[in-house]
Design a protein that fits this description.
The complex is a heterotrimer of chains A (about 350), B (about 325) and C (about 500). Chain A has helices at about 1-15, 20-40, 55-65, 80-90, 105-110, 120, 180-195, 195-210, 215-225, 240-245, 280-290, 295-305, 335-345, and strands at about 45-50, 70-75, 95-100, 135-150, 175, 210-215, 230-235, 250-255, 265-275, 305. By secondary structure, chain A is α/β, with parallel strands linked by helices. Chain A is globular and about 60 Å long. Chain B is built from eight helices and 17 strands. Chain B has helices at about 45-50, 100, 110-120, 140-150, 170-185, 195-200, 220-225, 230-235, and strands at about 5-15, 20-30, 35-40, 60-65, 65-70, 85, 155-160, 190-195, 205-210, 215-220, 240-255, 255-270, 275-280, 285-295, 300-305, 310-315, 325-330. Chain C is mainly α and about 500 residues long. Chain C has two domains: about 1-285, MetI-like (MetI-like fold, Orthogonal Bundle); about 285-504, MetI-like (MetI-like fold, Orthogonal Bundle). Chain C is built from 26 helices and two strands. Chain C has helices spanning about 5-15, 15-25, 30-60, 65-75, 80-90, 95-100, 115-140, 140-150, 155-165, 165-185, 185-190, 195-205, 210-235, 255-285, 290, 295-330, 330-340, 345, 350-360, 375-385, 385-400, 400-410, 415-445, 445-450, 460-470, 475-504, and strands at about 365, 370. In chain C, a hairpin with a 2-residue loop joins strand 1 and strand 2. In chain C, helix 19 packs antiparallel against helix 20 (about 375-385) and helix 22 packs antiparallel against helix 23. The longest helix of chain C has about 30 residues, at about 30-60. The relative contact order of chain C is 0.12. Classes of the chains: A alpha/beta (about 350), B alpha+beta (about 325), C mainly alpha (about 500). At the A-C interface, helix 1, helix 2, helix 3, strand 2 and helix 4 of A face helix 12, helix 16, strand 2, helix 20 and helix 23 of C.
Chain lengths: ~350, ~325, ~500
């Protein structure tokens, strides 16, 4: 606006040119409706979402349909949004932060910008998937798995540990997506469990095994299904999504690493209520709603993710959540991704 | 004596520290055609633009009848001066038709059609009225510019080298036409030009400018025949200046004695015009014919003097040949400085 | 206007400690090196494609000249990230090429200089083409003819006379390409070449705004140097402008013509057809029509068009006084106006976006916060693309003879009426061209829309970017085609204007 004023002055000084000033007033008029829209939107919930709206929008629409509360979303990368919230501080217009993965919720929690949620809300979710202070809850979970081609990998060949992939027998048969956020979170978790050196050695070994780079999870699953690579490291649900999209049976199958192994990692999406929110009642309503049976079923049915609350069971083909014993780490504490990137870069993965 | 239409008094224009117009003064009578003659960069265009109000003078007065165009407290906007201006490149509006160009300055809608018709006829543009500027020739554009200016019925028309983009023949024809139109419409005009023939042809009175200053003002005849300085003389015709020694009515030079326009004594510069002299064969003379050029109505003869060459006009039937020894006589009193 | 610079510096100063760490990063200098290497190689590659393209088109009879001309310029409407994505989708393993031939493309397209370089070169070469072609049209052939008469053969003439005469337009085109390459972030991000913008993007993704700011500042400094070079080149330009230069167009021998046509087909194939074919190929592979044509496609197109429209209007509003002062006024203010409009070139979209977030988060005017309103992306884009608007208004204004305005004054119209009746109509082509240029650029602009988008508003670019990011190749197709369609129509308007003007 400052610039506009300067510009207006510039126009004024530059020439007594009435022509240029009139349209400026016209544009101001054009802006009026936008401003109005904004004040109307005060009633609506503003959600900063790290989850892609193309997948999450139906969920938001459902909420609006049921409660009449409108939702406005700002979509971005989870880490970026988390830092935006930190930067905005008390001025943040956001009510809720819906994180694609929990990694950055810890940083917000320690910066004290998250509201502690009512105990009965937090209780709905297994304590492993909530913030230690009770200021965020997981909404859905995804397991890191090895997707493999049934024709190319025999059942007895399937590794118990993710570290087994370093074995030269996997040479030229694997795929991964080193730039992918879920993968990087997993590596961060591995560094916590195995230590930096061991993780680095593992990455080096995979590179030596000529592991193929993919941009994302979906192409890995497709490549595995088409037999272009034998197996790849992905989130569990991509297999089912690709199958639904291709509308045909696939030769691909998910394999879970053994309980307690560094490969058996479950990451969650989580939601938190911001202290700066001016619409806390509605926001709280949304959190409770997203933990309800209906919303949890949505995660299961349309995304094939693990529901975390309301007793909704997992997608039938999946190993049930209560039979899995993933590595135990604070899920909110995975934001030290700098180190992960450095390890990946130093070993030629990025 | 009638009152001057336009009075310019001690007008100066500066661009930064450069003085383009330096303290010039002149009057313009109603109905008079005036010319400002000067080489390029002499400040004549700046002076014209200052009169129009397109350039802001640094000092002086410009009075138009009882109206002040410019003085130390007034600077009338150009659109309020009711003055016509013809630009060197005509400045015809490319996005308007000939017709729209001509009526552009007309405020009074009711007179639009009649004025348009009159001007189209006056300047012979009837068949081009609906055309766009890029569809007509340069000469026609010039006529459009004149018509457009006359439409606002100005008391004064300022013209900046209006004929320089036309070929010589067309320029002469248009010049005469325009002069006649101005005379019949009673419009005063100032023509800025670097071409003395054009100035002579057009002007009732004219001024010669050099380096921002007016050197001399007068009728074309005065300026041609009685230039006040060699600088002024050099603008017109074939100007040859020789040095001599004045003794009253005559001066002695190395072509012999020459009559002077005004008495003086001592060393002086004398202006010789080729048509002012006559040649006669003379075996005693030291002057020799070096070259002869045939120019149709006359011959121009180059005579070698001890220290220079002099051109003399003679009749086409003259029998003088190259290498003849000749004598030069001035047949009229010459200007001296 | 200076806000981006101020915020970057402030951010950088605010986080000194981290910066010491960053300076110690072993990758800092190699990163700068990679950026510069990419920029210079792209400039060279662009010239190698564009100069022959312009030369043959200007000097030979070639069938389908007008179409070739348009196709040579067309890559301008391809946002760099769409091109990058299409080359990725074509040449990466599992791509179009592999699916078609069964073989992997011999050179890896990702994780290296080659892919990024190829993509950037093909997208940016039209900038050099335009400058060279325009210069060729102004060049009078008499110099070449006299060189021939002095006993040089055509090849010698080309290298001794024609090419040196084109030195300046080619050089300034190359600098512009280098500048664009330097500040582009989509291509390195998609094809993973670790340039400075790649790191800005990565730090941004991770929310490390201060580190992103640090790289932004570096980028501003380098861009500044480039711009100085550019204005220095332009100043040294002794241009012989002969607008009505008579053109001699030669007939090429059939063998040569064949070579020329092969050259055009291959460059145009790589730069235009291949991206289009790839997009169409993936389009045809999309199965789930609900996802291929997402519901918000119309909404986001509308939002994009609105944003582009407003940004174009505002930048034109800024551009008119800037151009006016720069051309018609003298003194400090004019120089200032001339320079300030150029600053937008110096700030890549990422930098402007970042600066706006930092500044407007807490900035309030009369209690009204502009944060997360439409104002931000509109203003951001308007500033970013102001130079384009100014230069086209300036070109147009420079062609208006000031005598015309004076003539109108002398005919009794005051300054306002003169501006309305004379200046405005004559300026219109320039205003329209400037408007269309900013419109296209804003439509394509990624980082500003990405960073400054209002909550709840989606733009085509955002959709496309998200889908590319998700590697949903088949879903990118529809919005990408839509974006290309809208831009092409706008480009057509500009070209149409230019072509009809040159026909007059």
């Amino acid at each position: 606006m400052k610039k506009l004023l300067i510009a207006a002055l510039a126009i004024f000084f530059a020439s007594c040119d009435n022509k240029t000033q009139t349209p400026s007033a016209e544009t101001a008029k054009e802006y009026a409706p936008v401003v109005k829209q904004n004040s109307e939107a005060e009633q609506a919930l503003l959600i900063y979402t790290g989850r892609k709206t193309m997948y999450a929008q139906p969920l938001f629409d459902l909420f609006t349909k049921e409660t009449g509360i409108k939702i406005t979303v700002k979509e971005g990368k989870t880490a970026q949004l988390a830092n935006t919230i930190l930067r905005e501080g008390d001025n943040s217009p956001a009510d809720l932060f819906f994180a694609q993965d929990s990694s950055n919720l810890g940083a917000l929690s320690s910066a004290n910008v998250l509201e502690v949620l009512p105990a009965e809300t937090v209780k709905k979710v297994d304590a492993r998937y909530t913030g230690p202070k009770g200021d965020w809850v997981g909404t859905s979970g995804r397991a890191r798995v090895l997707v493999y081609n049934k024709k190319m990998v025999k059942a007895e060949e399937l590794p118990k540990s993710i570290e087994d992939l370093a074995d030269p027998k996997w040479k030229g048969r694997l795929g991964w997506a080193p730039g992918n956020g879920s993968f990087q979170s997993h590596v961060t978790a591995m560094i916590k469990v195995l230590g930096k050196e061991k993780t680095a050695a593992w990455i080096k070994a995979l590179k030596a095994n000529e592991i193929q780079d993919f941009p994302k999870n979906t192409p890995i699953v497709k490549a595995v299904a088409e037999g272009k690579v034998a197996a790849g490291l992905v989130n569990h649900y991509y297999l089912y999504k690709v199958r639904l999209d291709m509308k045909e049976a696939l030769d691909a199958e998910n394999h879970f690493f053994a309980d307690g192994d560094a490969g058996m990692f479950i990451n969650v999406s989580g939601i938190a209520l911001l202290k700066s929110s001016k619409n806390k009642a509605a926001a709280q309503k949304f959190i409770d709603w997203i933990l309800s049976e209906k919303a949890q079923s949505f995660f299961k049915d349309s995304n094939f993710e693990y529901p975390l609350a309301a007793g909704v069971s997992a997608f039938s083909e999946l190993k049930p959540l209560d039979q899995i014993d993933p590595i135990k780490i604070d899920l909110g504490d995975l934001d030290k991704i700098e180190e992960t990137i450095q390890v990946l870069e130093e070993n030629g993965a990025l | 004596m009638t009152k001057a239409l336009l009075t310019i008094k001690e007008l100066s224009c500066h661009f930064g520290s450069f003085c383009a117009v330096d303290n010039i003064s002149f009057d313009l009578m109603p109905g008079e055609c005036f010319a400002l003659l000067g080489s390029s960069g002499c400040g004549k265009t700046t002076a014209l633009r200052a009169i129009a109000g397109l350039e802001k003078p640094s000092q002086g007065h410009i009075l138009h009848l009882d109206q002040t165009f410019f003085d130390h407290q007034t600077d009338l906007a150009p659109n309020l001066r009711n003055t016509g201006f013809i630009f060197q490149d005509y400045a015809i509006f490319p996005h308007l038709s000939i017709e729209e160009n001509i009526t552009f300055g007309l405020k009074d809608k009711s007179q639009k059609q009649s004025t348009l018709k009159r001007l189209l006829t006056l300047l012979g543009l009837e068949e081009h009225a609906k055309k766009m500027p890029h569809q007509v020739s340069g000469g026609q554009l010039q006529r459009v510019a004149i018509a457009r200016t006359l439409a606002i019925k100005p008391s004064l028309v300022l013209m900046d080298e209006p004929f320089s983009n036309l070929d010589a023949k067309l320029a002469r024809r248009l010049r005469n036409e325009i002069r006649q139109i101005f005379k019949s419409e009673g419009v005063s005009s100032i023509l800025v030009t670097h071409n003395q023939e054009e100035a002579f042809d057009f002007a009732d009175r004219m001024a010669v400018m050099e380096q921002g200053k007016i050197l001399q003002i007068g009728t074309p005849e005065e300026l041609y025949q009685k230039p006040k300085s060699a600088q002024v003389a050099s603008f017109f015709g074939h100007c040859q200046i020789i040095s001599g020694h004045a003794q009253g009515e005559y001066a002695t030079t190395n072509i012999g004695e020459v009559p002077l326009q005004k008495n003086s004594d001592g060393p002086c510069q004398i202006l010789l015009r080729p048509e002012n002299m006559r040649l006669a064969p003379s075996s005693e003379s030291q002057l020799i014919v070096k070259d002869i050029r045939f120019l149709g109505a006359r011959k121009e003869i180059t005579v070698q003097t001890p220290d220079s060459e002099i051109f003399v006009n003679v009749s086409a039937r003259s029998a003088i040949k190259i290498s003849d020894k000749v004598q030069i006589t001035a047949i009229e009193a010459c200007a001296s400085f | 206007m200076l806000l981006p610079l101020y915020v970057s510096v402030k951010d950088v100063l605010d986080s000194k400690n981290e910066l010491n760490l960053l300076f110690a990063t072993r990758d800092l200098w190699p990163t700068i090196g990679r950026s510069l290497l990419l920029a210079s190689l792209t400039a060279i590659g662009g010239a190698l494609i564009a100069v022959p393209q312009a030369w043959f088109l200007a000097r030979y009879h070639i069938p389908g000249k007008k179409i070739i001309l348009i196709l040579c310029i067309l890559p301008l409407v391809f946002p760099s990230y769409i091109s990058a994505y299409s080359y990725l989708a074509a040449f990466d393993h599992m791509g179009f090429y592999q699916n078609l031939t069964g073989m992997a493309f011999p050179i890896p397209i990702r994780n290296g200089l080659f892919g990024t370089w190829m993509s950037m070169t093909l997208v940016n070469s039209p900038l050099i083409f335009l400058m060279t072609y325009a210069a060729l049209q102004r060049q009078s052939p008499s110099q070449e003819e006299s060189a021939r008469l002095l006993g040089f053969n055509p090849t010698q003439v080309f290298f001794k006379i024609s090419l040196p005469a084109l030195k300046i337009p080619i050089a300034s085109g190359m600098l512009l390409v280098a500048l664009y390459t330097l500040s582009d972030f989509g291509t390195p991000a998609i094809l993973r070449y670790k340039t400075m913008t790649y790191y800005i993007f990565r730090h941004l993704d991770r929310g490390s705004f201060d580190k992103a700011s640090f790289f932004s500042l570096l980028l501003i400094i380098i861009a500044f140097i480039f711009l100085q070079l550019e204005s220095w080149i332009n100043r040294s330009q002794g241009r012989i402008t002969d607008n009505k230069a008579r053109q001699i167009i030669k007939k090429a021998k059939p063998s040569k013509l064949l070579l020329i046509i092969i050259f055009y087909s291959s460059t145009i194939f790589m730069a235009c057809l291949l991206p289009l074919l790839t997009i169409l190929y993936w389009f045809s592979k999309g199965r789930n029509s609900e996802l291929v044509f997402p519901k918000n496609l119309f909404d986001s197109s509308f939002n994009s068009a609105t944003l582009a429209f407003l940004a174009a209007i505002i930048s034109i509003l800024f551009a008119v006084p800037c151009a006016w002062c720069a051309l018609r006024k003298k003194g400090l203010f004019a120089t200032f106006a001339d320079r300030i409009s150029f600053l937008g070139n110096m700030f890549p979209g990422l930098v402007i976006g970042l600066a706006f977030i930092s500044f407007f988060v807490s900035f309030k005017l009369f209690g009204y916060s502009f944060y997360q309103t439409l104002w931000l992306p509109v203003l951001g884009c308007a500033i970013r693309f102001l130079p384009q608007a100014v230069s086209s208004v300036k070109t147009s204004l420079a062609q208006i003879n000031p005598r015309l305005e004076e003539a109108s004054l002398m005919l009794g119209h005051d300054s306002v009426s003169t501006k309305l009746r004379i200046t405005a109509p004559l300026l219109r082509p320039g205003l329209l061209a400037g408007f269309a240029l900013v419109f296209i650029s804003t439509l394509k602009e990624l980082p500003i829309t990405l960073l400054l988008a209002q909550p709840g508003k989606f733009y085509l670019t955002q959709n496309i970017w998200n889908l590319i990011d998700e590697a949903e190749y088949s879903l990118v197709a529809a919005p990408a085609l839509l974006l290309l369609g809208i831009s092409s129509i706008s480009l057509y308007f500009i070209l149409n204007q230019k072509l009809t003007k040159s026909n007059d």
